[in-house]
Specification:
CATH topology: TIM Barrel
Number of domains: 1
Structural class: alpha/beta
Shape: globular
Distance between the termini: 39 Å
CATH architecture: Alpha-Beta Barrel
Number of strands: 12
Helix content: 25-40%
Strand content: 15-25%
Length: 244
């Protein structure tokens, strides 16, 4: 447990791909980790109502499976997500904490997930990655920084000023830590500071898991972003807009 906390701290304190975010406007991204099927069936329907596109982080191991009561995406869902203009992104293949893997194992896992996702990308490269469980280390940050244009963690802050594109901050929309006032304040700060605000969740359901959100919660965030006139873009497009 101590090593996990130490890795988290060192990962935040050791930039691997520092960049000045100088976008002319604020930008937001809505992301779904692990890709439960409901993130597409329910979450995708909410995004469609607002005419915005999100980023779906897929771990190949979950395709077509049900684990611990969660039904995950299948190949048809991947095709539908891509056809609707959303971004399919990488969440590793085995969904293991990256600090626990050797560099050789990281490379094998990355190659396996890239090969798995290739048929669903319409010729586009994989540009975005999110650390499973949000766990990173200086070594694993460096590994992924050279392979993706942007890499996301789970540290609950905005991305503004000088940011580390190898460990971007993100705000949780999960029911276990839902804080409406904090989210509203963060959106207002993002508007004022021309920051990049990233949100993440997992399943979308009327009765979500502790790691998921209700459709109403997702809609509320999209409403507030619309009121603040913050454009919502998939991660691969938002990073270009944020860097300017």
């Amino acid at each position: 447990m101590l090593s996990v906390r130490l890795n988290r701290l060192l990962a935040r304190l050791t930039p691997a791909r520092s960049a000045r975010l100088g976008g002319a406007r604020p930008v937001a991204s809505i992301t779904f980790d692990d890709f439960p099927k409901s993130a597409w069936v329910r979450g995708g329907a909410v995004l469609a109502q607002y005419k915005v596109r999100g980023t779906y982080y897929a771990a190949g191991r979950f395709c077509g499976r049900t684990e611990d009561g969660t039904v995950f995406y299948d190949a048809d869902d991947l095709r539908a997500v891509a056809a609707a203009g959303h971004e399919i992104a990488c969440h590793s293949f085995g969904h293991q904490p990256t600090p626990s893997l050797t560099s050789k194992e990281l490379a094998q896992d990355a190659a396996r997930n890239a090969e798995f996702l290739k048929p669903f990308l319409n010729g586009q490269p994989l540009e975005s990655y999110a650390f499973p469980y949000g766990l990173a280390s200086p070594r694993t940050k460096k590994f992924y920084a050279s392979r993706f244009t942007n890499v996301r963690g789970v540290h609950p802050r905005l991305n503004s000023g000088r940011a580390d594109l190898a460990l971007l901050n993100a705000m949780s929309l999960e029911t276990r830590c839902w804080n409406r006032d904090e989210i509203l304040r963060a959106i207002e700060r993002a508007r004022h500071d021309h920051a990049w605000i990233i949100f993440y969740t997992h399943d979308i359901s009327d009765q979500p898991s502790p790691y998921g959100s209700t459709p109403a919660m997702l809609s509320e965030v999209l409403d507030r972003l619309g009121e603040a006139r913050i454009e919502i873009l998939p991660m691969r497009e938002a990073v270009k807009a944020a860097v300017g």
